[in-house]
Amino acid sequence: MLLWSRQSRIFVWVVFAVAVVVIFLAPIATVALAGFAGQWTGPLPSQLGFERFEKALGGDDLASLAVSLQTALVASAFALVLGAWAALSVREVPPWFRRVIDAVFHLPIAIPSVAIGLGLLMAFNERPFLVGGTKWIVILAHTALVLAFAFSSVTAALERLDPAYRQVAESLGAGPGRVLLKVTLPLLMPSLGAAAGLAIALSMGELGATVMVYPATWRTLPVTIFGLSDRGQVFSAAASTTLLLLLTLLALLVVGRIRGKAAVR
């Protein structure tokens, strides 16, 4: 072991705990606390209340929250279907072609999301592929950004999958479609659940590409939060951010529960 003494291990754990608190927990706690603040001129906020949250749960903010959830669910579903289909399709291709496909699917996360948004806006702004100015261009942008994670998750799961399952099913007379539906997909459900959770979390917080393409009728909550912060309404932005965090965690819990049931089956 690199750390021989008990004191050294304790020191490392303390440093790690402090880093987690300072880098991760403290900013989240500060944002949540700011959502209750009427003003913050000293070490701690004052005039605490629920006014900011009441406003965030009504009007345009609530509509943006619903838009974010719908976008995340639809984009994640598209990404799972496309990612799983691509991963299953490239299993039998030559290794060099598989590497090319892998690079193509990971390209959207290797370049700035703003570039993705601008590219989609320019590519789909003319007929017959006119989706600019509609909700579908936002969903398309989110799908492109989370597709790589679905593809990677299913690809990794397929590499770990014992081919004996498929071989036994085929020896019993099952066709390719039945093997896929009755053997392969059930075994992939835990990985698909993990990919869905990650895709939803990433989509719920996506801003860079969204701010380039969103129409006024389909504004996600991160865009609304950015607008509030830009106008100096940081406490309202903090309340909306807290709700976004809670909704994302709730969605992850639901996906995790579904994933757990699928794994048991």
Topology:
Blueprint: H1 6-35, H2 51-56, H3 59-89, H4 95-110, H5 113-123, H6 135-160, H7 163-171, H8 176-204, H9 210-213, H10 221-230, H11 234-264
Q: Explain this structure to me?
A:
The chain contains eleven helices and no strands. Helices cover 77% and strands 0% of the residues. The chain has two domains: 1-49, no CATH class; 52-264, MetI-like fold. The mean pLDDT is 84. The chain is mainly alpha-helical.
Q: How would you summarize what this structure contains?
A:
The protein contains 11 helices and no strands. The chain is mainly α and 265 residues long.
Q: In percent, how helical is the residue content? A: over 70%
Count of individual helical segments? 11
Rounded average pLDDT? 84
Shape-level CATH architecture of the largest domain? Orthogonal Bundle
Can you write the helix and strand succession as a string? HHHHHHHHHHH
- Domains, number: 2
CATH topology of the largest domain: MetI-like fold
The main pleated sheet reads as: none
Q: Quote the beta fraction.
A: under 5%
- Integer-rounded radius of gyration: 23 Å
- Could you give the distance between the termini? 40 Å
The CATH homologous superfamily of the largest domain is named MetI-like
The CATH class label of the largest domain is Mainly Alpha
Q: Which secondary-structure class do the elements indicate?
A: mainly alpha
How would you sum up the global shape?
globular
- What is the number of beta strands? 0
Low-confidence stretches: none
Transmembrane segments: 12-42, 62-88, 100-124, 136-158, 234-255
Protein name: Putative 2-aminoethylphosphonate transport system permease protein PhnV
InterPro entries: MetI-like, MetI-like_sf
Domain ABC transmembrane type-1: 65-256
